[in-house]
Amino acid sequence: MKKIFFQPFENYSETKLISIGLAGTLLGSLIAFAFHARFDGVLDLHFVNELHFYAPFTDNFINIIFLTIFLFIAAILTYKKTRIIDILATCILARLPYYLLSFGNINNYLLDITQQLVNITLKNTQAISIGVIDVLYIVIFALFSIVLLVYYFYLLFKGYKIATNAKGAKPIVFFIIAILLAEVSSKLSIYTLNY
């Protein structure tokens, strides 16, 4: 079990990782559609009232492309012999745990709570009914989100480190810059398409 969750890049071929990652991405996109989730950025998740069927698939495709491009550039700057297939496998596989967050919006529950919180913030007192259970749900979801985000970064960096034979601080700086550039680029692309 440890090999599967914490050492996938050391124990499985890139083609197997990509196959698992693609299957997981398709399933994750279907789940996102079912629960009205938008992965509208490499690090972002938002729940929406209405969603076109293709939106989660397009979101995830764009996120994977930009993440792969910028991590590959960072990888080449770190180690010239880095293969793009290793970076692609890393990007596809690392995102899989993040797709689980879609389940937080069963019956639009999380969307409804957040909209009520926005109403409170805007001092709109209509239809405010947030109870202790709602607050507890948000806290648990937030903690779960943080755990999955940390695991997402762990997998991304682990795959990047293995693909580049990274040592020292320079690859870490390149990695961080690549993630930030991928986030900005994916978000701009998704909102430019406006679907």
What is the molecular shape? elongated
The poorly predicted ranges are none
Average pLDDT level: 92
Write the H/E string, N to C: HHHEEHHHHH
Helix content: 55-70%
Distance separating the two termini: 39 Å
Structural domains: how many: 1
Q: What would you call the structural class?
A: mainly alpha
Taken as a percent bin, the fraction of beta residues is under 5%
Major sheet characteristics? 2 strands, antiparallel
Radius of gyration: 18 Å
- Could you give the order of strands across the largest sheet? 1-2
Count of alpha and pi helical runs: 8
Number of strands: 2
Organism: Mesonia phycicola
Protein name: Yip1 domain-containing protein
Transmembrane segments: 20-37, 57-77, 135-157, 169-190
Keywords: Membrane, Transmembrane, Transmembrane helix
Structure description:
This protein is mostly helical and 195 residues long. It has one domain (2-193). Helices cover 69% and strands 2% of the residues. The chain contains eight helices and two strands, in the order H-H-H-E-E-H-H-H-H-H. The protein has helices at 2-6, 8-11, 14-34, 55-78, 84-94, 109-121, 132-164, 170-193, and strands spanning 37-38, 46-47. Strands 1-2 form a two-stranded antiparallel sheet. A hairpin with a 7-residue loop joins strand 1 and strand 2 (46-47). Helix 3 packs parallel to helix 5 and helix 4 (55-78) packs antiparallel against helix 8 (170-193). The chain crosses the membrane at residues 20-37, 57-77, 135-157, 169-190.
